[in-house]
Design a protein that fits this description.
Strand order of the largest sheet of chain B: 4-3-5
CATH architecture of the largest domain in chain B: Orthogonal Bundle
CATH topology of the largest domain in chain B: Cytochrome Bc1 Complex, Chain D, domain 2
Oligomer: heterodimer
Low-confidence stretches of chain B: none
Largest sheet of chain A: 2 strands, antiparallel
Structural class of chain B: alpha+beta
Helix content of chain A: 40-55%
Mean pLDDT of chain B: 88
Low-confidence stretches of chain A: 1-5
Number of strands of chain A: 2
CATH superfamily of the largest domain in chain B: Cytochrome c-like domain
Largest interface: A-B, 26 and 38 residues
Order of helices and strands of chain A: HHHHHEEHHH
Radius of gyration of chain B: 27 Å
Number of domains of chain A: 2
CATH topology of the largest domain in chain A: Cytochrome Bc1 Complex, Chain D, domain 2
CATH class of the largest domain in chain A: Mainly Alpha
Helix content of chain B: 25-40%
Shape of chain B: flat
Shape of chain A: rod-shaped
Number of strands of chain B: 7
Strand content of chain A: under 5%
Radius of gyration of chain A: 36 Å
CATH class of the largest domain in chain B: Mainly Alpha
Order of helices and strands of chain B: HEEHEHHHEHEHHHEEH
Strand order of the largest sheet of chain A: 1-2
């Protein structure tokens, strides 16, 4: 190219040529400064490219601190889950019971008791013999279904029964369940309705 | 051109970097996405659509619904809240004094002004928000201190944002929500409302069908065009309406001997709309679900 330019002999019309020149110092400093700032910003807002971290959260720890830990709504969701997996198979997911299989829980005087003592004993001990529910006599056996459940699961599912399908009664806490479970000891025998009635509500 | 190689290399690096950042990186992050578990539940999210709703997505796409509707809800903030739900046997004045005495607890000191500030004009009514902010330890500490004296509280995680305030969503949209959308109908213009939660906001299929045929029969101010070609207007057979024919308010009803019957496409589209209900709390988008007061 330079040979061509010479042959033209006209410097004003010469093609511009590319030469190497040093970048100004301020551009280098500015670039490094921007990189440093970008690094800081990425560190505090990037969440380390975790696919679970979305804005407005900016780190995994922050997201973790916003996970709902407890609360009535969460307990209800937990209770519903346990109910549908364990109790609902016989008592029905609608709490209406199944003829010849299990009495209803919706509106049952055994579920909506004032206290929780009798109710917690039923899944922990099991039931045998006749039991009158809503004026109808049932003669069935129930295994101690609650023994295998954790305190919080059993408390959540009993609370769910007490506030669902039109039932309006107080909640059962994991502490209540733990107390009664400890008092019952190792291998409790199934209760009958007289024994239950003898207990305080 | 002496520098051809350098220019090629620079262009390759520039394009390669953007390909890496916009294509390869996200693919690595989310390409293997699978159903996730809904918080405190064993159910999976998102649920698989029914066949009818899956076909409805193609109808949604075909008629360009995404030109005016979005399916993405944004969230600008979040808070850990402690709501006071019952004072038990305590009187409001005693409770205020008790709360003041708690402010020496190290975890609460920094927020004492905001917590006590809320009590200044409070007349004892519940529920009342005691604390709303970033710090989950304030919530747990306060709840632990109030429990032994018989005061009932509930810890809530609240999602905030203009879209959420409009009722268009209960949390922000996350990648998991679109797992079964092919292609994803995000949309970018909101001439109409966001449809992320439309299956919860208007679960009634008849509402949707009437709204498609005559939008202003359901929403007086609607600017949506009527999609009449998704319906068949025909003469009643022997004076009897066909099953599935729309039932109208008198002012929108067609002539007495005519009926409006949705076509297959209309039914599929409505099934798809009914499947849009991003209301489950997820790990990446946590919130405490609000259940109706019992």
């Amino acid at each position: 190219m330079s040979d061509e330019n010479k042959s033209c002999g006209n410097a004003a019309n010469a093609e511009p040529t590319v030469t190497r020149s040093a970048a100004p110092m301020w551009i280098i400093v500015l670039t490094l400064g921007l990189l440093f700032f970008g690094g800081l910003y990425l560190d505090s807002h990037g969440g380390w490219f975790d696919a679970k971290v979305y804005a407005p959260y900016h780190s995994g720890e922050q997201l973790e601190s916003f996970q709902p830990k407890s609360g009535a709504a969460m307990a209800a969701a937990q209770g519903k889950r346990v109910y549908e997996a364990v109790c609902g198979i016989c008592h029905g997911v609608d709490g209406l019971g199944k003829p010849g299989q299990a009495p209803p829980l919706a509106g049952s005087e055994w579920v909506t008791t004032k206290g929780i003592n009798r109710l917690v004993h039923i899944p922990l001990q099991g039931l045998s013999g006749t039991l009158v529910v809503e004026g109808k006599e049932w003669n069935l056996n129930m295994a101690a279904m609650g023994v295998a459940l954790s305190d919080s699961d059993l408390a959540a599912v009993l609370t769910y029964m007490r506030v669902s399908w039109g039932n309006k009664a107080g909640e059962v806490t994991a502490d209540d369940v733990k107390k009664i479970r400890d008092a019952l000891g190792g291998h409790p025998q199934p209760a009958n309705s007289e024994q239950l009635k003898a207990m305080p509500e | 051109m002496k520098t051809g190689g350098t220019v090629f290399l620079a262009a390759f690096v520039a394009l390669g970097a953007s390909w890496f950042g916009l294509v390869r990186g996200p693919l690595h992050q989310l390409g293997g996405a699978q159903q996730t578990v809904i918080l405190q539940s064993t159910d999976n999210w998102p649920p698989q659509r029914t066949g009818e709703a899956t076909l409805g997505l193609q109808v949604y796409r075909k008629y360009g619904c995404a030109a005016c509707h979005t399916e993405q809800v944004r969230q600008t903030g979040m808070a850990n809240e402690l709501a006071l739900t019952s004072l038990g046997t305590q009187k409001a004045a005693d409770f205020k004094d008790f709360l003041k005495s708690l402010m020496v607890v190290p975890a609460l000191m920094n927020d004492s002004n905001t917590i006590l500030g809320k009590l200044a004009g409070w007349n004892g009514s519940v529920p009342m928000t005691l604390y709303s902010g970033d710090d989950s330890t304030v919530v747990s500490t306060l709840a632990d201190k109030l429990k032994p004296v018989g005061v009932k509280t509930e810890a809530l995680v609240v999602a905030r944002g203009a879209d959420l305030a409009r009722g268009w969503g209960v949390r922000q949209s996350v990648a998991a929500d679109y797992l079964y959308d092919e292609p994803v109908q995000l949309g970018s213009l909101r001439a109409g409302p966001d449809l992320t939660l439309i299956g919860v906001r208007h679960p009634d299929a008849d509402w949707q069908l009437q709204h498609l045929y005559a939008p202003r029969s359901q929403v007086p101010d609607s600017t949506m065009p009527a999609f009449r070609f998704l319906f068949e207007v025909r003469k009643k057979v022997a004076g009897q309406s066909a099953p599935g024919a729309l039932v109208w308010k008198p002012e929108f009803a067609p002539a007495a001997d005519l009926e409006v019957v949705p076509t297959l496409e209309a039914r599929q589209l409505v099934a798809y709309l009914a499947s849009l209900k991003a209301n489950a709390p997820l790990y990446e988008a946590p919130f405490t679900p609000v259940t109706a007061a019992k």
